[in-house]
């Protein structure tokens, strides 16, 4: 089967007539024209197809070949087959359906009236569907199917009579319809037709608002219903030859010998009776027993006739229908009289006459609902009875009270509580489940339907081994904790035990009973056993089991609540008893404590007192009177009489304490000096001292917040105050001694550095002067001796300066003024820089110095870390200095510096025998303070190994101590201040690390240490700056090494024959290269105008001379006053003033020191009394960290410490001027 889906033409839009306004928007019409005909037909739920009538214009008889089928038709493949091809069998003529040939002719025929393409007739019934057709421009025919509602016209059919069966009426109608259809098909078109049934009219009601959501749905058209006759249906099973498929029950009914019954043979039944019988048999609800067929009701169901008979008689007498709800009717089935309930309806049947011919009975079995309702009523009543129960004993009585409510489902009940045999009054509800069952007994709490003293209900029995079947059943229920069924037929319920019982309910004896073990829902122990008789007229089925389970559950839940309440009450009583005992015990303890406190107060070394809010002493102990001399007759004392017991200067203190306690109500204490004439405290030497007491007070407040009194105590603190004063005096003396010591060190350092600076500059001047001139003959020898003497002078200056620096460092360490300042740094660069400082010296002494990096640095990616570079450099300088000192005279001269790292712990591959020196103080939470960052903690290890003279075990024990050397000859042979290793150890421990050594005499030594630092990301070196003190230490170290290298080089390297010896200027240039200062850069600078402010005339002249030699124009001032006067003449104050580029300012000067002068200049800048920022460099011998910071805070731009060299000073001056110039350009 196929269906063409060729594209249909687009909708045709006819031009609008002139003068006719249809009110359509052009845009709406345009959108409407976009909709195609196939889209419209696919939305239709009716099966529809389209034909191209041009295919049928020439001749008829072509098969139906649709050009388009809508979705509804495509989904019904069977219907589509019936449209395209003929079915295998022709339709029944009685059905009214046309044949496929007629349907094909009707669908494809073209009208003979003019050029009209409309079809006639418009409808045709085919395949139980009503088909309609219409044509559209230009040649399309659209055919749709509709459901058919078939009915018979009442006006054309005679009413049925009692003698005419329904089959005859149907035959007559079918013949009539066949004849009419034949006439229609014989017409010109030979096409059968039938009118379309109109839509069912809906009743008209006033509009009703159904809500927002309901109104959104469009109204649906009423659909018609097609009434058909299924093939399997049996319309009339009483007919001689019924049509359809008979069920087993209908075949059974037809086999009954109805002729032998009062109803007579079936063929003689009237039409009305047959219709009623068919109606009854078609009713799906069962309403009668098969045994009732052809008999009276009182036959098979004689046991219930006494209840049903009166109802039937009343219905027959009155002719009114009768209805009974849930009527109890006993039925004998399953071998016993069963309790059942029915809802009946009795309808009299007149059969078209005036007398009752019979009754139509419709019965509904409501046994399950009725019995369930009765049982639920029992459970509700039982719950009400148990609701207000408070004790277990009362609970058992309420259970029996609730069970009495239902006579039918509880014909018999026995309730036994389970208790321990040792204590009959103790219920097992509170007993442990581990107690054996054989030691327990059952006590009768009550019964329902059983008289007291009956054989089935003993008052008490033990749950031990016995031959009694009932007791054995109770024991089994206790053991299994499951319901136990008792039956008369298996002997578990002896019939002899049931004699003499007046049965409740229907009065029938029970054949079965069940034992329910009752246990609370929150425990496992069985508290009671309930024996219930089973309703003799009901089977113990699943519904009965559910009822007993619900009953057991309800009793268990209520029992748990009662037990919880009883336990709570028991705990409450126990708590009350315990509280009473505790109260009695506390009373005794309170009395005992009171006596103890009274005795403690009497023997206490403290004076105790009680003062009322008016200031009157109410009560006091004996010690109070002894300490104060207060009158003992307290009743005669005046308020605040105790104030006279204090010295005059302490009275104000005491009153301040009083007001403080009154206002704040908080504990207060004061130290008060007393003037009791009976007390004379003395010190250890027997000398009299002041009498002091510590007064402590506490306000006593009532629960309402009112002030009740003040309690207080007096403690003699005379010796404590004396010791405190002695300690303060000694502390002041120690601080004064320390201050004088530091001041002495500072003065000594200052006074030593001042001449050292001049000596060093003069030595450089002598060396440079002699180097720049050429001497001949003896003069050349004299010049060389003078140059050597100048070098020796410079070396002595550096040696003396190193001693001063070590003394200052030790002073800082002793005063805890030296701190670690972490900054971003590259440890490898610092180590290489320290080695570069010694390169000229080791080359001059023939020492090979090597640098080794461990693989751990690359593995951990160590580059930039947070540490104190100046302290690391200071440690390395000390260790490398010692290595050079002790290696320079050895046959093998090699120094190796090795660097490694660890991320977990300082576990490095140390040489054999290496030991770390135990630290004096271990820093707590090192590297966690401010400035350390949050990077990973790294342990940086450094070793300095030499091939020097080595150390013995005795000599190693003296290392790292202050002013201690390996042996007395060490100082004589190698020199030194004996402070280097001590300082190194202190600096390492301050940095969170340890230092150690391994050495062998004659082989060499290895000094190693590690520092704690933190990893950080690489950054530009120019972004990080050291502290002023660190910069100063590093600069001074480099100056020292440069000078020492120059001196050593001049001593160790004689000039070669024929080659002029290197001049001191050349050596000086090498030193300047180490400081990253070039002569070319100096020559490029402009002319410098320098003001030297110095009170020391020697230093002033030497510095002025050297600056002039370097090409500077120098002015001088003796102190800060003259410096300010000179500033008034410069361009900073007047446009036509003298030039001034920079000021070199000493700090310690008479009349006005350099710091004060600098502050005044900065104040002038703030007041805009000078035209620009005045560059100032402090030239001072005070190079402590705090002194450098003080200089910076006073306004100094830079600080250079004495002694210094002219190249270093010039480099700092140019760097400062360049920085200020760059800042000025940025602003």
Automatic annotation (TrEMBL):
<dbReference type="Pfam" id="PF00512">
    <property type="entry name" value="HisKA"/>
</dbReference>
<feature type="domain" description="Histidine kinase">
    <location>
        <begin position="747"/>
        <end position="1015"/>
    </location>
</feature>
<feature type="domain" description="Response regulatory">
    <location>
        <begin position="1089"/>
        <end position="1217"/>
    </location>
</feature>
<dbReference type="GO" id="GO:0000155">
    <property type="term" value="F:phosphorelay sensor kinase activity"/>
</dbReference>
<dbReference type="Pfam" id="PF00072">
    <property type="entry name" value="Response_reg"/>
</dbReference>
<protein>
    <recommendedName>
        <fullName>Aerobic respiration control sensor protein arcB</fullName>
    </recommendedName>
</protein>
<dbReference type="Pfam" id="PF13188">
    <property type="entry name" value="PAS_8"/>
</dbReference>
<dbReference type="InterPro" id="IPR036890">
    <property type="entry name" value="HATPase_C_sf"/>
</dbReference>
<feature type="domain" description="PAS">
    <location>
        <begin position="593"/>
        <end position="633"/>
    </location>
</feature>
<dbReference type="InterPro" id="IPR036097">
    <property type="entry name" value="HisK_dim/P_sf"/>
</dbReference>
<feature type="region of interest" description="Disordered">
    <location>
        <begin position="1048"/>
        <end position="1070"/>
    </location>
</feature>
<feature type="modified residue" description="4-aspartylphosphate">
    <location>
        <position position="1146"/>
    </location>
</feature>
<dbReference type="InterPro" id="IPR001789">
    <property type="entry name" value="Sig_transdc_resp-reg_receiver"/>
</dbReference>
<keyword id="KW-0597">Phosphoprotein</keyword>
<dbReference type="InterPro" id="IPR050956">
    <property type="entry name" value="2C_system_His_kinase"/>
</dbReference>
<dbReference type="InterPro" id="IPR000014">
    <property type="entry name" value="PAS"/>
</dbReference>
<dbReference type="InterPro" id="IPR035965">
    <property type="entry name" value="PAS-like_dom_sf"/>
</dbReference>
<dbReference type="InterPro" id="IPR011006">
    <property type="entry name" value="CheY-like_superfamily"/>
</dbReference>
<dbReference type="Pfam" id="PF02518">
    <property type="entry name" value="HATPase_c"/>
</dbReference>
<dbReference type="InterPro" id="IPR058846">
    <property type="entry name" value="PAS-like"/>
</dbReference>
<dbReference type="InterPro" id="IPR003661">
    <property type="entry name" value="HisK_dim/P_dom"/>
</dbReference>
<dbReference type="InterPro" id="IPR004358">
    <property type="entry name" value="Sig_transdc_His_kin-like_C"/>
</dbReference>
<dbReference type="InterPro" id="IPR003594">
    <property type="entry name" value="HATPase_dom"/>
</dbReference>
<dbReference type="Pfam" id="PF26131">
    <property type="entry name" value="PAS-like"/>
</dbReference>
<dbReference type="InterPro" id="IPR005467">
    <property type="entry name" value="His_kinase_dom"/>
</dbReference>
């Amino acid at each position: 089967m196929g269906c063409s889906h060729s594209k249909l033409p687009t909708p045709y839009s006819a031009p609008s007539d002139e003068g006719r306004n249809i009110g359509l928007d052009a845009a709406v019409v345009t959108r409407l024209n976009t909709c195609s005909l196939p889209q419209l037909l696919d939305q239709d739920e009716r099966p529809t197809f389209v034909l191209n009538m041009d295919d049928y214009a020439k001749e008829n008889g072509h098969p139906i070949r649709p050009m388009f089928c809508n979705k509804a038709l495509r989904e019904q493949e069977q219907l589509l087959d019936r449209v395209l091809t003929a079915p295998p069998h022709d339709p029944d003529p009685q059905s009214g359906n046309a044949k496929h040939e007629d349907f094909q002719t009707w669908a494809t025929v073209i009208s003979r009236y003019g050029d009209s393409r409309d079809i006639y007739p418009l409808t045709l019934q085919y395949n139980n569907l009503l088909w309609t057709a219409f044509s559209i421009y230009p040649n399309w025919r659209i055919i749709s199917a509709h459901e058919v509602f078939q009915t018979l016209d009442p006006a054309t059919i005679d009413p049925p009579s009692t003698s005419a069966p329904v089959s005859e009426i149907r035959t007559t109608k079918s013949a009539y319809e066949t004849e009419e259809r034949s006439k229609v098909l014989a017409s010109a078109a030979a096409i059968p037709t039938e009118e379309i049934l109109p839509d069912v009219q809906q009743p008209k009601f006033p509009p009703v608002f159904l809500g927002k959501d309901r109104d959104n749905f469009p109204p649906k058209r009423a659909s018609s219903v097609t009434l058909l006759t299924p093939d399997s249906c049996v319309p009339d099973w009483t007919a001689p030859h019924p049509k359809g498929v008979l069920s087993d029950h209908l075949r059974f009914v037809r086999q009954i010998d109805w002729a032998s019954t009062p109803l007579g043979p079936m063929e003689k039944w009237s039409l009305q009776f047959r219709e009623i019988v068919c109606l009854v048999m078609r009713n799906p609800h069962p309403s009668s027993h098969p045994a009732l067929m052809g008999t009276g009701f009182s036959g098979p169901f004689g046991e219930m006739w006494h209840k049903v008979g009166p109802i039937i008689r009343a219905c027959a007498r009155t002719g009114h229908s009768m209805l009974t709800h849930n009527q109890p009717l006993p039925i004998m089935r399953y071998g016993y009289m069963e309790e059942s309930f029915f809802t009946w309806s009795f309808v009299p049947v007149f059969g078209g006459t005036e007398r009752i011919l019979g009754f139509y009975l419709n019965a509904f079995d409501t046994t399950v609902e009725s019995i369930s309702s009765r049982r639920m009523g029992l459970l509700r009543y039982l719950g009400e009875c148990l609701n207000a129960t408070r004790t277990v004993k009362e609970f058992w009585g309420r259970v029996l009270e609730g069970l009495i409510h239902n006579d039918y489902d509880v014909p018999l009940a026995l309730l036994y509580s389970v208790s321990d045999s040792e204590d009959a009054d103790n219920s097992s509800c509170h007993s442990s489940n581990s107690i054996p069952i054989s030691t327990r007994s059952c006590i009768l709490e009550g019964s329902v339907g059983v008289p007291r003293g009956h054989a089935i209900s003993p008052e008490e029995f033990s749950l031990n081994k016995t031959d009694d079947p009932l007791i054995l059943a109770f024991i089994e229920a206790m053991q299994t904790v499951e319901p136990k069924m008792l039956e008369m037929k298996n002997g578990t319920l002896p019939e002899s035990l049931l004699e003499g019982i007046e049965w409740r309910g229907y009065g029938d004896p029970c054949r079965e009973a069940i034992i329910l073990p009752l246990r609370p829902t929150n425990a496992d122990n069985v508290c009671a056993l309930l024996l219930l008789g089973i309703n003799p007229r009901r089977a113990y089925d699943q519904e009965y089991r559910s009822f007993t389970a619900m009953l057991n559950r309800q009793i268990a839940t209520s029992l748990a609540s009662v037990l919880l309440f009883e336990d709570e009450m028991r705990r409450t009583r126990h708590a009350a008893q315990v509280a009473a005992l505790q109260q009695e015990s506390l009373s005794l303890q309170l009395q005992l404590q009171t006596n103890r406190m009274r005795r403690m107060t009497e023997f206490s070394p403290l004076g105790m007192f009680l003062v009322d809010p008016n200031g009157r002493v109410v009560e006091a102990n004996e010690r109070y009177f002894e300490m104060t001399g207060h009158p003992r007759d307290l009743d005669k004392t005046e308020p605040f009489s105790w104030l006279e017991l204090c010295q005059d200067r302490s009275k104000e203190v005491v009153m301040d304490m009083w007001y403080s306690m009154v206002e704040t109500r908080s504990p207060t204490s004061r130290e008060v000096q007393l003037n009791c004439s009976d007390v004379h405290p003395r010190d250890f030497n027997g000398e009299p001292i002041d009498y002091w007491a510590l007064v402590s007070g506490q306000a006593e407040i009532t629960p309402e917040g009112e002030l009740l009194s003040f309690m207080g105590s007096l403690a003699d603190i005379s010796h404590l105050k004396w010791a405190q004063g002695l300690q303060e005096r000694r502390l002041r003396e120690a601080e004064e001694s320390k201050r004088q010591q530091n001041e002495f060190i500072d003065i000594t350092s200052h006074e030593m550095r001042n001449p050292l600076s001049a000596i060093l500059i003069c030595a450089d001047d002598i060396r440079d002067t002699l180097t720049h001139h050429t001497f001949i003959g003896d003069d050349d020898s004299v010049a060389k001796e003078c140059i050597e003497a100048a070098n020796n002078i410079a070396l002595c200056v550096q040696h003396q300066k190193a001693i001063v620096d070590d003394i200052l460092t030790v002073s800082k360490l002793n005063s805890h003024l030296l701190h670690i300042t972490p900054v971003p740094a590259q440890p490898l660069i610092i180590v290489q820089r320290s080695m570069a400082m010694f390169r000229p010296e080791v080359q001059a002494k023939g020492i090979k110095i090597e640098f080794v990096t461990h693989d751990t640095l690359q593995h951990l990616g160590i580059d930039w870390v947070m540490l104190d570079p100046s302290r690391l450099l200071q440690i390395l300088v000390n260790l490398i200095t010692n290595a050079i000192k002790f290696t320079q005279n050895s046959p093998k001269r090699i120094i190796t510096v090795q660097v490694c790292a660890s991320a977990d712990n300082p576990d490095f591959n140390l040489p054999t025998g290496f030991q770390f020196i135990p630290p004096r103080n271990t820093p707590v939470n090192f590297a966690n303070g401010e400035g350390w960052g949050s990077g990973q903690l790294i342990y940086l290890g450094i070793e300095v190994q030499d091939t020097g003279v080595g150390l013995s075990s005795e000599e190693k024990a003296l290392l790292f101590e202050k002013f201690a050397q390996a042996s007395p000859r060490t100082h004589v042979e190698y020199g030194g201040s004996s402070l280097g290793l001590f300082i190194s150890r202190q600096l390492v421990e301050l940095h969170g690390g340890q230092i150690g050594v391994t050495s062998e005499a004659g082989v060499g030594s290895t000094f190693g240490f590690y520092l704690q630092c933190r990893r950080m990301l690489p950054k530009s070196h120019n972004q990080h700056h050291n502290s002023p003190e660190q910069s100063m230490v590093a600069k001074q170290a480099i100056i020292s090494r440069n000078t020492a290298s120059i001196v050593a080089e001049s001593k160790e390297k004689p000039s070669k024959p024929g080659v002029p010896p290197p001049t001191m200027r050349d050596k000086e240039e090498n030193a300047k290269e180490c400081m990253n200062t070039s002569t070319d850069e100096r020559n490029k600078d402009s002319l410098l105008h320098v003001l030297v402010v110095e009170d020391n005339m020697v230093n002033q002249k030497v510095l002025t001379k050297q600056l002039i030699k370097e090409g500077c124009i120098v002015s001088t001032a003796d102190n800060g006053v003259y410096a300010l006067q000179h500033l008034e003449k410069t361009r900073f104050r007047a446009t036509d003033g003298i030039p001034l580029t920079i000021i070199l300012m000493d700090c310690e000067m008479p009349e006005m020191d350099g710091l004060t002068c600098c502050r005044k200049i900065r104040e002038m800048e703030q007041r805009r009394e000078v035209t620009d920022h005045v560059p100032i460099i402090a030239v001072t011998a005070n190079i402590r960290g705090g002194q450098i910071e003080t200089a910076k805070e006073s306004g100094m731009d830079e600080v250079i410490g004495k002694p210094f060299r002219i190249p270093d000073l010039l480099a700092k001056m140019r760097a400062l001027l360049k920085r200020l110039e760059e800042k000025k350009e940025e602003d």
